[in-house]
Amino acid sequence: MMRSTDSQMAPVPTARRAFAPVAAPAYPLVAHDSPGCTLAWRRDRMHSVEEFLRSVWGLAAQLPPKRYAINVCKDRYLFAVGFAAALVARHISLLPTCRAEEPLRRLAERYSDAYVLTDHDLDTSMPSFHVTDHARHSSGSMKIPFIPADRIAAIAFTSGSSGFPQAHAKSWGSLVLGAKALGRQFALSSSPPRTAVGTVPAQHMYGLETTIMLPLQWGWSLHAGNSILPADIRTDLERLGSPAWLMTTPFHLKAYLSERTALPGLEGIVSATMPLTRSAAQEAEHIWQVPVHEIYGCTEGGMLASRRTADGDAWTLCHELRMRQESGGTWVKGGHVGAWLQLTDRITLRNRREFLLLGPNYDLVKVAGKRASLAALNAALLRVRGVSDGTFYWPDQGRSGNGRLSAFVVAPGVSRAAILADLRRFIPVYFVTALPRNATGKLPHEQLETFAEQVRHSGQARTIHECRRESFETEARRGFSQGARRDE
Questions:
Q1: Which residues pair with 294 in a beta bridge?
Q2: 264 vs 242: CA distance, rounded Å
Q3: In angstroms, rounded to a whole number, what is the distance separating the alpha carbons of residues 464 and 466?
Q4: Domain termination site, one of 359, 386, 407
Q5: How far apart are CA 484 and CA 429, in angstroms?
Q6: Ramachandran region of residue 327, left (φ > 0), alpha (ψ -120 to 50) or beta?
Q7: Residue 225: pLDDT band by 50, 70, 90 thresholds?
Q8: Do 108 and 151 have their domain in common?
Q9: 135 and 17 in one domain?
Q10: HEC string of 308-328?
Q11: Interval 129-164: pLDDT, tens
């Protein structure tokens, strides 16, 4: 299979004189061995590497002359085609955490020279380009492009769980090195090829790393659909043509456990951190007979460490990275992270490669005169038998000094006494039917703030934010929440 740079990509010279400038290294778009390899699976067909490359080159030649591509494709294969085509066309992909009209409008205001890449009808006044037809009917080149490592490939955004989403530019080199580090961390193999099946959107940094970049850089295939519900995931796994790894979240994993969903052909599970409880990991390993790994990372640095949750609390740093602590802060450096990056979490180092994660710096609160972590409180709440979901909420993260800590609990049929025994003396507890989690299972602070006001003042746990329509709970329940009650 031919591998080349396009006319705008300078080849890496084979020899340099001492005074010649050093060219940036370049990495291939895909690492598959032949054009006939499977790059993506869906229930009714497969997409070869050749088909993918022809679609990428064909689409890149037709994209509008702008700087930014807002990729909102739901289908993972079409997302990959759009992402790669934008990369070849030297456009920067913007990866919004929400596809609703208002967040997209704000994004367009911030990045005026942008257009939308989509695979579905979108209610927006922005210039839009449908990927679907070009991905299915293209006769472009089948050459593998080599992309300079320092080219900005995407701008990813934080989930907003600690405030307003923040933008972080990601170079192609950092994405490639991150994917390679991810595979080495779990001792993954490219032979025989596996399939990465994901329940998280490709627009999320964790989804991009595990369900797009990992398959592209390890010669795997990606799962083309966007299934989330337990029955759909089971059907997809039954029809795949290769062993699979499930890239998911504790929120989704807990739903699969509650339904005892069969997961045929599965070799391993990778979960995001929210956290995943040890009991849930042990139960998952017992039911499905596969290892359950948990990833620790951030939008700024990508994946940083992992652990096999059933075995203990310690995290193992990626081989290429190193940590240091100074003045109460923790920094990480090397590999796909690059220069020293300060982390927002409280960490205890055990040795050069192992550490304990204590929670974000901003989540320390006073409860009954003692300092406690919101992460630890949430973990304790989720361990209560009968609690299917729950979170503690601290208005404006305590910055005003007068916000009162509250708890929102999803616990159908459970005795309130079991939950309130240690909480009701000092924390208002609201029993609700669901929480405003987004498609990755996180609780963006902006949505939680609105949710809290609605519950407190109206007694109804309804939402007006369109992002919630994309959440797993909405898909599963067909109607996010019906009401709430308060106990103090």
A1: 271, 307
A2: 11
A3: 6
A4: 359
A5: 10
A6: left
A7: confident
A8: yes
A9: yes
A10: EHHHCCCEEECCCCEEEEECC
A11: 889 877 766 777 889 999 999 999 999 998 655 556
Residue after which a domain boundary falls, among 304, 337, 359? 359
Pairing state of beta strands 152-157 and 38-42? unpaired
Counting every residue, how long is the chain?
Answer: 488
Q: How would you class 196 by CB atoms within 10 Å of its CB: exposed for 0-12, middle for 13-18, buried for 19 or more?
A: buried
What CATH number does the domain containing 207 carry? 3.40.50.12780
For the stretch 235-265, pLDDT in tens is: 999 998 789 999 999 989 988 998 999 999 9
Q: Are residues 256 and 211 in the same domain?
A: yes
Report the C-alpha gap between 293 and 272 in whole angstroms. Answer: 9
Residue 438 banded pLDDT, cuts 50, 70, 90: confident
**C-alpha to C-alpha distance for 80 and 56, rounded to whole angstroms:** 9
Backbone phi, psi, residue 374, to 5°: -60, -35
Tell me, what's the pLDDT at 79?
97
- Average pLDDT across the chain, whole number: 81
Q: How many domains does the chain have?
A: 2
Residue 181 CA: distances (Å) to CA of 210, 305, 437? 11, 10, 29
CA distance 320 to 183: 12
